[in-house]
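hey so u asked for the seq, here:
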Amino acid sequence: MPTYDYQCKNCGLRFESFLSISEYEKPQECPSCNTLSERWIPESVSSVFNVDVQSIAPQNTGISELDLHIDRVIGAHAQKGWENIKRRVADKRALLNNTPDSDPYAIVRNRDGSYRLMPTEEKEKHTQAQNVNKKVMKTIKQKKTIE
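ran it, structure tokens below
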């Protein structure tokens, strides 16, 4: 659904509403003072289209509403991703702070998303499995170079 801009004549707040194309002319309720507000249309519009792109540039379809929507979706996704990363790092730090002298390489993620420290026996098995994997990968790489 498209995004339309509205401006409240009572409190001056400019806000957006997601509406179907058939409903864009209907006044919308201001989120600040609940007054019905008319659609805001800019008095002047200017644009620049850069054809000479030398590097990675933001998306430009030529339709500003579409570009803005795509940018918002990408931004919201990135924000959620960073929030998840920060939460996981905080969870790992809390686990290490609660168990002093623990090995940070012994942290494993449980199925429910929480973290725990591997017991010594499990960590030894894990290290053995990593060593076997390294040897197998080295052998595969050598066989590829021979062929």
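The longest helix spans residues 64-98. The chain has a mean pLDDT of 84.
lmk if thats what u needed
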